[in-house]
Amino acid sequence: RPIEERVVNALGKQWHVEHFVCAKCEKPFYGHLHYEKNGLPYCETHYNELFGEVCFKCNHGIVGGE
C-alpha cells in the first residue's frame, strides 16, 4: 500500500514538501511564496538579492514601480 505524502507541484515537477527549497539558502518554502529564475526556485529575499534592482543608497531591493 503506497504511503501518502504531502507534495508540492511547482516548476512543472512534483517535490516532497521538505525538498522544495530556495536554491540559495536551501530553506523549505512550506507553502510560502517562491520566485523562479532559470528553472530554480528562490525565496523573495534571495531572488531580489541575486536578480532584483536595488536602491543605490540603502542597497535594499526595489519591488515593482520605477
Compact overview of the structure:
GO terms for molecular function: metal ion binding. The protein contains 1 helix and 6 strands; from the N terminus they run ββββαββ. The model has no long low-confidence stretch (mean pLDDT 86).
- Which oligomeric state applies? single chain
CATH architectural designation: Ribbon
Shape: elongated
Mean pLDDT: 86
Spatially, the strands of the biggest sheet line up as 1-2
Tally of discrete structural domains? 1
Order of helices and strands: EEEEHEE
Helix/strand/pairing class, anyone? Answer: alpha+beta
What proportion of the residues form beta strands (DSSP E)?
25-35%
CATH fold group = Cysteine Rich Protein
Rg is: 15 Å
Count of DSSP-assigned helices = 1
- How is the main sheet built? 2 strands, antiparallel
- CATH level-four homologous superfamily name: Cysteine Rich Protein
Helix content: 10-25%
Pfam families: LIM
GO molecular function: metal ion binding
Keywords: LIM domain, Metal-binding, Zinc
Protein name: LIM and senescent cell antigen-like-containing domain 2 isoform X5
Task: Write structural notes for this entry.
- Keywords: LIM domain, Metal-binding, Zinc.
- This is LIM and senescent cell antigen-like-containing domain 2 isoform X5.
- It comes from Paramuricea clavata.
- Pfam families: LIM.
- It contains 1 helix and 6 strands, in the order ββββαββ.
- It is α+β, with helices and mostly antiparallel strands and 66 residues long.
- The chain has a single domain, classed as Ribbon (Cysteine Rich Protein), CATH 2.10.110.10.
- The chain has a two-stranded antiparallel sheet. Strands 3-4 form a two-stranded antiparallel ribbon.
